[in-house]
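User: Round two. Same drill as before: sequence, then structure, for each protein.

Assistant: Same drill it is. First protein:
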Amino acid sequence: MQKLKNEELKRLSEEGYRNAHKTPIVIVLDNIRSLHNVGSAFRTADAFLIEKIYLCGVTGCPPNKEIEKTALGATKTVEWSHVKNTLDAIKELKKNGYKIISVEQADKSTKLHKFKTQTNEKIALVFGNEVYGVEQEVVDESDVVLEIPQLGSKHSFNVSVSIGIVLWQLVTERISHEN
């Protein structure tokens, strides 16, 4: 087995990405403090052809060298906007037909592996602050709360890891339905 060189990967150009059919998923970052986590969200969103990222509250915005350090150019491909208040972004997304899904630990959450979506269903995934999680008022407005099962002694994943886990699960589920 031989590792592939970058030119053999057949990746989209920036223009190709912008023109490609996107996965009908948006990411909402609810007051994410770490610029490295923001950059990682962009890079992961690019990898899964996500429609857009909403950067809410204190979440840092491009251009920023700390975001770029982990985004590796994905801020040029993934559409984004800043919304001062996360709840305003949620209300706008609901009005546009998105199912609001907060990724959080809650008393009536659905375990990620038991959650199913429709192939073309428009969903907005809300990921919360590194310390406080998703704001309760946003959880209250959510259609679903997803929880990633954890088996160890720690109570949470890093937000960038959570984004990767959830997107992998949801996007691969959609891909498997298409084939």
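Second protein:
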Amino acid sequence: MSDLSAIDHGHEAGFGDYVQLLKPRVMSLVVFTAMVGLIVAPVPVHPFVAFTAILFIALGGGASGALNMWYDADIDRVMRRTRNRPIPAGRIGGGEALGLGIALSGISCIMLGLATNLVAGAFLAFTIFFYVVVYTMWLKRSTPQNIVIGGAAGAFPPMIGWACATGTVSVESLLMFALIFMWTPPHFWSLALFMKDDYSKAGVPMLTVTHGRRATRRHILVYTILLAPFALGLALSPIGGPVVLAAAVLLNLGFIAGAVRILGRDEATAEADGYRAEKAFFRFSLAYLFLHFGALLVEASLRAHGLGGW
């Protein structure tokens, strides 16, 4: 766990450091999937209310990122991928990050509740709690199931967006949740395959550390296969349609093919070519999710003009 003091490396924090503290790449996924959940919901939302809702959901996602970086500063200092983050690099103090994260958490949840409804505000608060306390403080350092269970935090945003519009949870929002939830393990495990020894050095019990890389490759294939029915179920739901179905079929065939490809590789071959197949699978996993949710947007637009849906 991070202490509350900064490591003084003689660097002053700039605006970009505070942006980095909020994990903008993760935030972009949160914003996009929450926006899709809000737009595809059957209850129309005024554009200003929708913009306000997405803004506060983004702030909530940023708050989670700041609190995660505060707590994980000790392991971030060890890992090559994270050691230049603002706190381990000494540009922002741990106490400052903690204060910012708590402040943004409170503001985002209260304002989202006021702008939309109490269900959405409470849902955002629970998501922040789950990511920071359940995943970051507990699961991440205690079990190789950290990504499997903790992935729920990243799967909640479309449900929050849906709740902003409807004030409820539905089968459609649960299917959007399930798509992200099942996608998260193969996405992160493929990253762990080419991060080499970062997780073991940091003492994080990632599956590659506890069960080995061969077992991780098998798990990736299993989860990509299990993911496909949820994608097809979403395509056949009331917010789906032919566009979503076509995307689901093509993307899941590609995802499974990529998992089969990396399963057949031994570590010597993978290391020799710089883990090209594993990195390609990781990049495809990002496109997989954005294209699925993009297809939902296209279907919603067609439906609004009387053309989409089943």
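Confidence is low (pLDDT under 50) at residues 2-10.

User: Perfect.
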